[in-house]
Amino acid sequence: MTDSVRMSLAQVHDTARRLLLAQGFSEPHAEAIANTVTAAERDECRHHGLFRIAFYVNALKAGQASGEAEPTLTDLAPAIVRVDGHNGFSPLPLERGHAPLVERARAQGIAALAVNNALNVAALWPEVERLADDGLVAFAFVSAIPYVAPYGGIKPVFGTNPMAFAWPRPGRHPLVFDQASSMSARGEIQIRMRDGKPLEPGWAIDADGNPTTDGKAALAGAQLPFGGAKGSAIAMMVELLAGPLIGDVLSVEAGERDVAKTGAPCGGELVIAIDPTKAMPNGDLARQAEHAERLFSMILEQEGTRLPSDRRYRARERTTKEGVDVPASLHASLMELLAG
Ligand code: NDP
């Protein structure tokens, strides 16, 4: 028996969509989540691919998420659009907010999308890459469930709070980075525990605040921010931007809401878009792009470097032609869910 099943991206999308529909998601939600899951498989970001379907389904079954909520859009200011997810998952609200955000950013030079009351268990690069594909510089911020202790402390306060950034490169894929503010992903700790492997030193502390490489002790204690006090400050900034600024929850509050412990937090996301043609006096996009390329060249001429997102684009080229290898156990569990 082989330990993986080869699927085309069309099959990944179709499986995800049918499964979500069968579990009670509406057509627009099933389509939007299937798009997100397929993009993650395509770019070999597997923690956010088919593996995540269980998070979407479990939160729905636990009654903590709506599978049908229609997002509603409101203008908070000429350059700030709000989309209320009404307790649905974030891919659909983000999809619905995209065009208004682009339109406002082009009109005003800079604009923001405040997503409220949406469950986010996805990566952030899809929303910023999509904006950069439309020629905009973009940022996104999301808080999560409290797993991470502030620098110097021992009790979790922050989520693994990711932030993402995208820079358009005319004629090429945008430059994108998308990173958690913790040393490791939560899922990576769970995978190491499953495989009986220790954690890397520096990832976590136990409940008494002692450094640990034991997964169980880490889950009972806290994960650590990357980069000491500096990563802790970034995690705090993400909390403020995705929570209080836009009238949404802190990670601690999202954790309290997750009564069934599904690991799917309901809260806010802030997305910011800047029109680069309006960010300098003569809007000389060609000069601006050339200037940025100088930076990228200086990085890439050094051996051992690459640009963030290059790995994803290489994977994308390959998987679009060849499909993806899905672990047999995951494939079997999806088929079981599909069969009801
Ligand atoms: P990684 O540490 O894998 O990567 C972070 C960034 O660094 C990526 O942009 C990656 O680019 C880049 N990178 C990695 N190695 C190199 C290198 N050698 N040279 C240049 N750039 C490099 O990601 P994280 O574990 O921090 O986060 C994983 C994902 O989890 C993110 O997508 C994040 O949004 C998501 N997440 C979501 C949460 C939620 O609540 N929704 C919570 C926490 C995380 P590349 O992609 O090309 O490898």
Automatic annotation (TrEMBL):
Q: Where are the transmembrane segments?
A: none
Q: Which Gene3D superfamilies match?
A: 1.10.1530.10, Hypothetical oxidoreductase yiak, domain 2
InterPro entries in alphabetical order: Mal/L-sulf/L-lact_DH-like_ah (IPR043144), Mal/L-sulf/L-lact_DH-like_NADP (IPR043143), Mal/L-sulfo/L-lacto_DH-like_sf (IPR036111), Malate/L-lactate_DH-like (IPR003767)
Keyword Oxidoreductase recorded: yes
A GO term, aspect molecular function: oxidoreductase activity
| Superkingdom, natural source | Bacteria
* Similarity section: Belongs to the LDH2/MDH2 oxidoreductase family.
Q: What is the protein name stated in its UniProt record?
A: Ldh family oxidoreductase
Q: Which Pfam families match?
A: Ldh_2
Q: Which UniProt keywords apply?
A: Oxidoreductase
Its signal peptide is: none
